Every structure is written in structure tokens, then in C-alpha cells.
Write the C-alpha cells for this entry.
Amino acid sequence: MTANEPIGTTVPAPGEAAASARRAGRGALADALRASRADTLATLAAYRRALPDLAVPQREELNPPLWELGHIGWFQEYWLARNPQRDRGVAADPDVPRPASVRPGADALYNSSRVAHASRWSLPLPGVEPTHADLEAQLAATLALLEQAGDSDDALYFFRLALFHEDMHHEAALYMAQGLGIAIDDPRWQLPPLSAPGGAIQLPATRWRLGHEGAGFAFDNELVAHQVAIGDCAIDRQVVRWDEYLPFVDAGGYGDPRWWNDGGRAWLAASQARAPRYLRRAGDGWQHWRHGRWMTLDPMLPACHLTLHEAQAWCAWAGRRLPSEAEWECAAVSRPADFRWGDVWEWTASAFSPYPGFVRHPYRDYSAPWFDGRPVLRGASFATQPRMRHPRYRNYFTAGRNDLFSGFRSCAA
């Protein structure tokens, strides 16, 4: 098998929308920006029904909803309406002087690179209506600029970045809603049950070209594409379901140190976890916390809200292992008809690190500060916008996070 030789014939649905979005022209981008904003505001409405004052507790995994909204509009305006080098794409100077925001003092409120997370609860944030007005003005300015923009990837780079940034924050709003017990009724953002997994996908040893290349938008950590060696691999066709994961819990896995590495044992000691987050025993079965209430758990659902440590422990118990991100990408791209993904984010065995030749893009804090050994997650989740579901996208969170819509698939040990 040669590098990237296709051994499947059908492009997976997640990749289709994302490939189009990364190459979207002005008209499609305008439609997507409007749609993204509509979803932002629809989810805000769900928050307001549950929390009229939009007050949330100060926790590491949360942000004040009003800060999130203001930050989304600020980011779009900062990199577009206020950016005199927006047409230069990745060659733009991130420190070029900028005019003021529509909101006086906005940089001191919403610049996530400078506003410490813990301070966001005490900021003098505008209320809902002023924030909504800012968002309207900022989007209108963006769309007006887009009408006059060129058609090159450079000219459209920051429009695409602003779109994907808002999409990311929308998913964050959905998993924060889960943690806050807020019901999200939109059928698009519901976890789907899976069928029986079937046999593993056999990947022969190969040289794989890892990362993005070619035209269209790419995040800086997806570059530069490079060859890597992959050994023979038998990888699951889909992520692990609850009916596969819970026997580990029922067997006392959370109390058996044999299955946990040093990081996992430290996480267990700190968290005192005895089962996955949002799950509890109910008689002979299990319930999960969803939409702000306890519900009978469908064992066919993907195992979700798991840390890396829980994924690794299950693999040790089952005699399996997590795939590397190269194995994951090879299977997703070369075997699209067989490899189901996009149900939950998938922990991998790879550390988040720069590819050879990495160069920071103008949004300098997107990747480089997080090259600290934290793991890569691949794929997407049921709460990810379809236009974000790209097989070469690299997500990254610390190993102990379980507020995310995260699970895993395994490989033969």
C-alpha cells in the first residue's frame, strides 16, 4: 500500500461538509456566518429560559455566558473589521495597530489571551441587550466586508477563521449546558445510538502523509503535511459503546489499580470517581444525566464524558490500546466507508505537538501555548457543527477533562 492510497470508495458525511466549508467562497461563507450566529442565539435562548440572569458558578470548565457572547463578536471584529491586514491571510501581522471596537474597552473585556479565566466573573460586562446589539453590528460589518473581499484563500482566511471560531464556541455552549443541567431540545445536538460494531478494520503497514496540504483553510497545527510510518493496525470501526464500557465498571475497574497508569491513579485519587461522569446505578441498570434530569441509559449510546485516563484504563482491562492520531487519520481518510466517526471526540495516544515545519498563524494563541504534552483528540462529536467535522482536525484538552463530549475507540494491543 502506498501513502494515502485509497482503499475505500465513499467520502464520509462528516468530511464532505467540512471540506466544502474550508473552501467556501463569499456567498457560502455569508450563509454559514449567518447560520452560525443563529445557532449561537438559539442556544442563548435555551440558557435564558433556564437561567434568566445567566449567572453560572465559577468553575474551570465554564465561562460566564455573557462573556462567551461578547468574546465571539469581539473575535470576529478584531480579526476582520479592525484588522487592516485581513486580506493578507496567514501573512498578516497580528500586532498591527487597530481602530477601536464598537464597544469601548472591549479588548480589556473579551481578549482571551489577556483576560484571565478566573477574572471573567468580575468583569463589568454589558447586559444581554447591549451584547446582542454589539453582535448584530459586528456581524453586519463582517458581511459588508465579505461582499467586497477577494476570492483567494488569503482574502477569505479570516472570514473562515471567524466562522470556525464561533462554531467551536457553540459546541462549548452545548457541553457547558450539559454541565449546568440546561435542556437542549434541538434534534441536531442529540447523541445517536450505534449499531453492533462489527469486526475491526485491518490497516496494513504504510507510510502515511499526516496533516493538511493543498488549497483551502487549515489550522496552523494541521501543517505541515509530512510522512510518518504506521505499522499493521486493527482499529475499531466505531467508538466504544456503553454496553462495552460498563462491564469494566461493574467488574470493579475503578477500584482496581492494575488498570490505571500513574496519571490515572492520580486522577482517581483527586476526583474520587467510581463511575463515569453523569452516570449512576439504578437497580440492575444505569441512568445518565441529560437535559437536566436522570434518564434510563441506552447501552447502545457511545460511551461519553470520559477522560483520557478512563479510556486508557478500559483499554488495559480489555487488552486493547488507543490509536495514535496517525492511525486514526489513516483509517478515517483511507477507509471512509468502514470507519464511522463524528459521534464523540476520540482520545488518542498522541501528544499535542507541532508538526515538522510548524509556523504559528496570526492567531498565535490557538495552538502554540498548548504544546505541553496534553493528548490529541480526533474526529468530532454529535454537538460539532458539520462544517467543523474534518478528518485532519486536531482537538486538544488536558487528560482529566470529562465535561467534553469525549469517548474513544481502540486498537488491538
